[in-house]
């Protein structure tokens, strides 16, 4: 589990770094970005995991979201992994932008040929945190998760499948109900097979219904002019309805005029950092 | 002998020459003593000399002390020598003479002349006169030589020595300096101290001498102990001196007092006796005058009687003559005249001749009235009636709400048996009815008058009286009672984490000078209400006080006037765990009713109408809303509102001057969270300027937390139960504003 530093740049008195390592879960080299706030030089800090969306690498978030200042102020380590295994030479992995490379969908694949490498769920909730906790001044008890689009879906399912593992969760334009949207149907049938009962384990809206308590504070921002919202890829209303029914606290903000890209994320990233900091620094 | 010399070190500060300086010269004024006495010295001398020789080597150690003492003695001796006209001219001869004298006198002494000489001779300049004495002594000694062995008993020596001391003590100039050689023994450096015998001894003695096996200590230690004891005694003496000095000055004071008192009494007597003498003299004058008058009156009366008596006599004589003449006349004529005469005579005899004494010659007994004199005499010993006392002005802070302490004093040393203190409330001119006066009799020159009205002015005056009479009344002094305690308007207290705005009613009809706030932190460990902070000099009936966050305080208010502070008001509790305010009924829409505690709003049934009569400028007329004032303090304010999740409501903040006819959140003067419940769906809006973000909230809040942060320009709303942040307005009002509530349906909003 040797870490190889790829880059390191000083940023708001802390450091934005990129590391590479050999992943046991994914059986390939994986990169991740990590921001170490100035506070990490003197003590352990909470860790906030960011899951990116379709087609992204670890680079998109760390270069575009502009979260560093807020993270430095609140003393949060922010870890941004890649979105899928890479270079596994699986037939068809690079055929489409919404499946395979850059589209891991944060599930543990059960279908050949994906099930050997495409274990992003275990990577995110298990291997990566262990790696971070072992190599950085991270407080293992204080972790939260958030993400965008497919990453938003990832963040929600990680939080909902592991009650109390994450102190808080938030999402930008998440794929809220993948079982019912084209992206999700494609990915789940590819990775998990055609048995839809298996899909439910990775569907946020379904997971809400079996979530055991209401100790999770969920913040969701959604651009109103998001093409994918209109296309029915995201389906936040299903999720909100499920949460309202289950009394799981969600604040869902439909932001007038914003679309699906990183400008929208950058606009509201501070709200999300603050949302997590409230729980992580409590 | 041993004992006496043994104590010598303790006395080495004693300047008495007899104790210290004997070894260097021996010179006696022999006139004092008869031959026997003189010669008694010699055995002692001999003894000394021997001791000297034996201890010679040790003496150097103590030389500094001794030389000082020696010097003193030497000086004294010189002075005395001069006084007696002694000459120094035979100095050198003396040296040899001494030796020879001694040799001739004492056979044993010859064994050690060489050692004696360095001690007795070389240091002395004035040996001349010694020589003379020695010479003298030598002669005497020679005469008595044969008796010598018998002398030298200790007792004899003692006598001699005491005799000397005694004589010297009385008048030293009668004697030449007189140094007894035995002193040398005291200077012998005893090196340890025998505790058993309490004397310094030589270590040698401890081993072999009579102090064998006695307990010993180091001489230094012993000396130190002794010195300490002496010091102790000195302290005692010093204390005694101070005591005596104090006593003396006390006596002096008593002298002065006696002087004064008697002087005063003398004056008093003089005054009274003069008065009596004057009165007596006056009385004498009066009596004498009255007596003279009486005398003149009597004499005048008698004189008048005498005159009329003489007249009568004359008339009688004339009648007699006439009758005699008639008798000598002729018959006819006689008859004629006789008839006339008889008529005349008859007439005359008819008139009564008064021979009664109109006045008694004797002195009428007159009693002299001495009663006034007696009274005067009595008054010499009686005391005069006192003068009017002087009433003091009120001592600040001496009054309570129902009592004042009045003090007065006397002008002079009048003797007073009791005072009568009278008072009445000061009536302002408007009140025509005369206020009732009260009086009390007091022995002391002060009195606490009770059962008064709070914050009221009273006029006091006092008279003093004794057996002789009553003084005139003093000037009138106005005292004022302390105010009544104020009444805190606990429903109008506004507070936040760092401050509280406390308002109260004066509780007094008349104005008071100021108010004081007392704060006591409520501590679970110490329930006693210890005042931790006071704020004084508050001129108005409200005060903004700084507090520490997260505490609970009891606040009291006192009213202050010249007389003092009032009792504490009833306490009000302030908790600095959030922002507290009360709903202002004056702003409330007519359909809203606010509960007794000022925290709960209930909307009555009925439709809001714009035609609702407007009885107040600050009352909401269109919107069914009410406002509550926030404490005017910058910083963060947080309060919570309990709502019913199926109720339509708006909660938020607005400027105090929000348009009462407008909708909440419709313009730039208010910010609010709005909830509407339509067909079992919750709709939440965060309204300002009529716009809201689109927000969905999955868990309807039952308790809304509102955080207004003037510093970071934020107004945030929270679902308190699950600590969920709902929405934050950036750039809300930076000036002070009020909390705002609006109800669309008949439900209850409760602010906490």
TrEMBL record, chain A:
Asked whether the keyword Hydrolase is assigned, the reply is yes
EC numbers listed for it are 3.1.2.12
State a single Pfam family of this protein. Answer: Esterase
Task: State where the protein is found.
Answer: Cytoplasm
- The reply on keyword Cell membrane is no
List the SUPFAM superfamilies.
alpha/beta-Hydrolases
According to the UniProt entry, its GO molecular function terms are: carboxylic ester hydrolase activity; identical protein binding; S-formylglutathione hydrolase activity
Check the record and name the InterPro entries matching this protein: AB_hydrolase_fold, Esterase-like, S-formylglutathione_hydrol
Q: Which GO terms describe its biological process?
A: formaldehyde catabolic process
Which residues are the active-site ones? 149, 226, 260
Q: Which reaction does it catalyse?
A: S-formylglutathione + H2O = formate + glutathione + H(+)
Functional note: Serine hydrolase involved in the detoxification of formaldehyde.
Family to which this protein belongs: Belongs to the esterase D family.
Protein's name in the database: S-formylglutathione hydrolase
Originating gene: ESD
From TrEMBL, chain B:
Which superkingdom heads the taxonomic lineage of this protein's source?
Answer: Eukaryota
Coiled coil residues, start to end: 209-240, 274-301
User: Which InterPro entries does the UniProt entry name for this protein?
Assistant: B30.2/SPRY, B30.2/SPRY_sf, Butyrophylin_SPRY, ConA-like_dom_sf, E3_ligase_FN3/SPRY, FN3_dom, FN3_sf, Ig-like_fold
What's the source species' lineage? Answer: Eukaryota, Metazoa, Chordata, Craniata, Vertebrata
| Segments forming domain B30.2/SPRY | 561-752
- PROSITE patterns (UniProt xref): B302_SPRY, FN3
Give residue ranges for domain Fibronectin type-III. 389-485, 486-579
Give one Pfam family: fn3
Coiled coil: is it a keyword of this entry? yes
The protein here is known as Fibronectin type III and SPRY domain-containing protein 2 isoform X1
Q: Which terms are listed as keywords in the entry?
A: Coiled coil
